[in-house]
Specification:
single chain; alpha/beta; Rossmann fold; globular; binds S-adenosylmethionine
């Protein structure tokens, strides 16, 4: 039987209770907020059959698991530094029978230096992972030229976008458009799309910890 978002919700709630994947407050909002927010991107983007998507900073598995469930012919690689979370996400994917999901534990700065991950993905997704200048450096390491980053943000993203001007130019990851929507309860949300326009300079991403301590921020 095809797995459903409802089954995923049950799994996330159960696993989260056992392993603290989400805070107690967030656990109560999985069905009303986190799952609808995760799949909202599908109103603006249809994952192509046979394409490769990387969900960076997947944490407890969002948005990666929800998107993989909706698009079984697209390959999803879910990545996070926290091994315990990655193991839990792998177990949930197995339980749901999601053959299109791979999980990887590691730091983005290191994985993006491995040829099997560097500039290999058509799309990168990132929800609640980092401020834009930092996020662009992480995502640029994994995206193919021509690929897109979808970044989930709140409605006050303009300041972050201004701060990400240098990062966009330096990394060749250029802002293209924003998609605004509302969650149940009228919470305003925005997903930003960036396009990778040139090959990444070998100096990027910088070594572990450097992007976060010294982000490419425009003043
Ligand atoms: N995307 C999930 C969601 O929407 O519920 C979880 C977001 S959680 C707030 C951010 C995650 O990014 C954390 O699990 C953290 O371990 C991961 N992360 C942040 N920086 C990272 C890095 N440099 N390398 C690997 N993982 C990182």
């Amino acid at each position: 039987m095809k797995p459903t978002l409802q089954k995923l919700q049950q799994q996330l709630e159960q696993t989260s209770k056992e392993l603290n994947l989400f805070s107690a407050g967030d656990r109560l909002k999985i069905g009303d907020k986190h799952l609808p927010d995760s799949v909202a991107v599908l109103d603006f983007w249809t994952p192509a059959d046979g394409s490769r998507v990387m969900d960076i900073g997947t944490g407890g598995g969002l948005p990666g698991l929800a998107l993989a469930l909706s698009h079984p012919k697209t390959s999803f690689t879910l990545v996070d530094a926290r091994e315990k979370k990655v193991r839990a996400v792998r177990d949930m994917a197995e339980e749901l029978g999601l053959e299109n999901v791979r999980t990887v534990a590691g730091r983005f700065e290191e994985l993006a230096r491995e040829t099997k991950y560097r500039e290999q993905f058509d799309v990168v997704t990132a929800r609640a992972v980092a401020s834009l200048p930092l996020l662009l450096e992480y995502a640029a390491g994994f995206l193919k030229v021509g690929g897109s980053l979808y970044a989930w943000k709140g409605p006050d993203y303009e300041t972050e976008l201004k701060q990400a001007k240098i990062a966009q130019a330096e990394l060749g990851l250029v802002y293209k458009e924003s998609f605004a929507y509302e969650l149940p309860g009228a919470e305003a949300r925005v997903i930003l799309r960036f396009e990778k326009t040139k090959k990444l300079h070998p100096a990027y991403p910088r070594r572990t910890g450097v992007p976060s301590s010294n982000p490419l921020v425009s003043k």
